[in-house]
TrEMBL record:
Top-rank taxon, per record: Bacteria
PANTHER family hit by this protein: 1-ACYL-SN-GLYCEROL-3-PHOSPHATE ACYLTRANSFERASE
Keywords, sorted A to Z: Membrane, Transmembrane, Transmembrane helix
Protein's name in the database: DUF3593 domain-containing protein
Transmembrane intervals: 6-24, 31-54, 66-87
Amino acid sequence: MLSVNTLFLLSLFPYLGFLWFLTYSKETPRLALIGFYCLLIFVAITIPAGIFAKEVYEEELANIDWLHGAAELFLTLSNTLVVFGFYEEIIKYKNKQDK
């Protein structure tokens, strides 16, 4: 049976493929694309934060509110950039339709 860490690592490959497709398709709004890449920052921050929580507090990351909240800030940033990127593109599209 695969461990959680192995499954986590394997799940990165489809996401990296997704990023590759979005980047080279040239169809994704730039701000949204930055948001999708920021999700990798969230992952990169969450892993050490989880290790820190386990080593220092002997708890799961989800049980250390200040540390969990700090890590989740990057997820919120990522999601916000994606939403604003697509929102901006919708506004541009509507403005073109009105002309």
